[in-house]
Amino acid sequence: MPAPIVVASNRGPIAFARGAGGGITAKRGAGGLVTALSGALAASGGLWIASAMTEADREVAARGRVGAEGADASAYELRYLGFEPESFDRYYNGWTNRVLWFLHHYLWNLPQTPVFDAETGEAWDAFVAVNRTFAEAMAEEGDRLGPGVAFLIQDYHLSLAPAMLKELRPGARIAHFSHIPFAGPSYMRILPERFRTALLDGLLGADVVGFHAPEWADRFLLSCRLLPGARVDLRRRIVRWRGREVRVRVNPMGLDVEALREEASRPDVVRATDELREWKGDTTLLLRVDRAELSKNVLRGFLAFDRFLEARADWRGRVRFLALLNPSREDIPEYAAYVGECIRTAELVNERWGTDSWQPVDARVRDEYAQTLAAYGLYDALVVNPTLDGMNLVAKEGPMLNTRDGPLILSETAGAFQELQRWALAVNPFDVDQTASAIASALDMPADERAARRRGLRAAVRRNPPSRWLDSQLSDLGLAGRHTPAG
Ligand code: ADP
Ligand code: G6P
Predict the structure, then answer these.
(1) Which helix (H) or strand (E) segment is 38 a member of?
(2) Would 321 disulfide with which of 255, 286, 416, 484, CB 3.0-4.6 Å?
(3) CA dihedral in degrees (163, 168, 172, 173; nearest 10)?
(4) 11-15, 63-67, 201-205, 314-318, range with the lowest pLDDT
(5) Is 179 a pocket residue for ligand 2 (Cβ < 6 Å)?
(6) Are 424 and 219 in contact (CB under 8 A)?
(7) Is the peptide bond prior to 114 cis by the omega test (within 30 degrees of 0)?
(8) Residue 32 CA: which ligand is closest?
(9) Ligand 2, from 14, 28, 102, 155: best to mutate by most atoms within 8 Å of Cβ?
(10) Residue of 393, 396, 397, 401 best suited for mutating to test ligand 1, as the one with most atoms within 8 Å of CB
């Protein structure tokens, strides 16, 4: 019998909203975690517990468990947890995304940030409270589902929940998985000791702690050495803590290619493809797709394009750089400032090189998933240059939908690099000259090399189906998966 699965994550697969007619409408949630987990859970079934993030989510939350209405997630149940908006804001914006996200992606500007004070203290308290609510909800759902439940806790928002759940249900089998990088010990030391210890202790409440890439797993292990009394075996990737043995695993998440293809065949994507084709005319299309997010390195991407145009007069007037930036975490001032700077930089490139009939950069900050899928089909080269990224699914999705053998320019610091590096054009994300050269190499690349790289990229993505991620975690917990029996 496959193990019953309870997944917990901050963001759920569906964002609910009040439609114009007063009814509740459902839309897909943003980001890589949702993409990845929707694929894995659609195959296995189970229960997904998530935070209510909008007013309409909170209305749905009040109904208890629901099937996923009007969305593609009918294979599993959904339970949204409602929080009081002010404390949710402290937890989500104040702690998880202004402290933990910045910590693990090295985003602080250390002469000025972070500052730990009473406000961060309140944000921490809210973070503890939300984690406790999740742990209690998991314990309750686990009791309902009976023995042999696998608790799969996702991402940095829920770093404390594993230890809380372990305390509530000592026999529970718990895996925690981070979809982002993990800061090493030097950076972890920026956090006051009480926070650092609580975070590491929280994660070590799981039986298995997972990451997309070996580097993040190793940095976590090295950080655990900061815990007095922890014994860390780097080679076997094991931490002995509070009399238990916690295994640290590398388990890169695969892409649900069939689900992606199905979405890409929807009528709104077909319409968006026609529109983009018209917009692009006979120019060559350079594309980037990101959440409007500091770690995605949009700014240096535009600077690199500027240098490319400077060096390559022959491409002026013939190539357009389309940046599809999905709005994200808009209440956080650093995000608003960064997006503003990206737009200004795009305008500067346009002023410098543009003509009456040619606008080199088009940066669109909008939530338009259909347009994204359409653009994947049409690009001639894809730029994925994050400064640091847990995985980056855009790097996998683009090549699966692209019809033009467009090369992939990829940061060495993205988790996806370990699977795709052989077939991508590698860049150091901080080196704008190298990124400019990579753009040139991509656009100049002969057709046979483009085709060979495209084949390589697709085969690499296909080698890692999303079921593998789930089954590995279940077998690490000693439970039977849907696709592979427990070892
Ligand atoms: P991150 O998780 O940091 O946002 P990823 O590249 O791993 O980065 O994942 C981004 C995911 O968001 C991809 O699966 C992409 O297709 C998806 N996406 C892009 N635009 C939208 C949108 N407007 N709405 C929902 N999902 C989107
Ligand atoms: C990344 C994180 C996810 C998060 C997503 C979107 O993928 O790993 O946990 O859900 O970004 O961010 P948001 O703050 O909108 O949920």
Answers:
(1) helix 32-44
(2) 286
(3) -20
(4) 63-67
(5) yes
(6) no
(7) yes
(8) 1
(9) 155
(10) 393
CA distance 293 to 297: 8
Distances (CA, A) of 108 to 164, 215, 231, 262: 29, 20, 30, 40
Q: What is the mean pLDDT of residues 237-259?
A: 96
SS3 call for 365: strand
The token duo for 333 is: 């001032």
Ligand 1 atom with minimal separation from the 180 CA: 3
212 is written with which tokens? 């997309």
230 alpha carbon to ligand 1 midpoint, in Å? 37
Integer Cα distance of 187 and 388 in angstroms: 14
Q: Residue 150: is its pLDDT beyond 60?
A: yes
**DSSP SS3 for 255:** coil
CA of 369, nearest ligand number = 1
Q: Is the pLDDT of residue 487 over 70?
A: no
429-458 residue pLDDT tens: 999 999 999 999 999 999 999 999 999 999
DSSP 382: E
Mean pLDDT, residues 316-326: 98
Binned at pLDDT 50, 70 and 90, residue 68 comes out as low
Burial (Cβ within 10 Å: 0-12, 13-18, ≥19) of residue 125 = middle
Contacts of 358 (CB under 8 A, 6+ apart): 283, 316, 317, 320
The verdict on the CB of residue 31 being under 6 Å from ligand 2 is yes
Count of CB atoms within 10 A of residue 168's CB?
A: 15
- Which pLDDT score is estimated for 485? 45
The predicted structure's pLDDT at residue 44: 76
Distance of alpha carbon 203 from the chain centroid: 19
What φ, ψ does residue 22 adopt, rounded to 5°? 95, -15
pTM: 0.96
Whether residue 486 is predicted with pLDDT greater than 80 in this model: the reply is: no
Q: For ligand 1, is residue 392 a contact (CB within 6 Å)?
A: yes
- Given the CA of residue 389, which atom of ligand 1 is nearest to it? 3
What pLDDT score does 482 carry?
A: 59
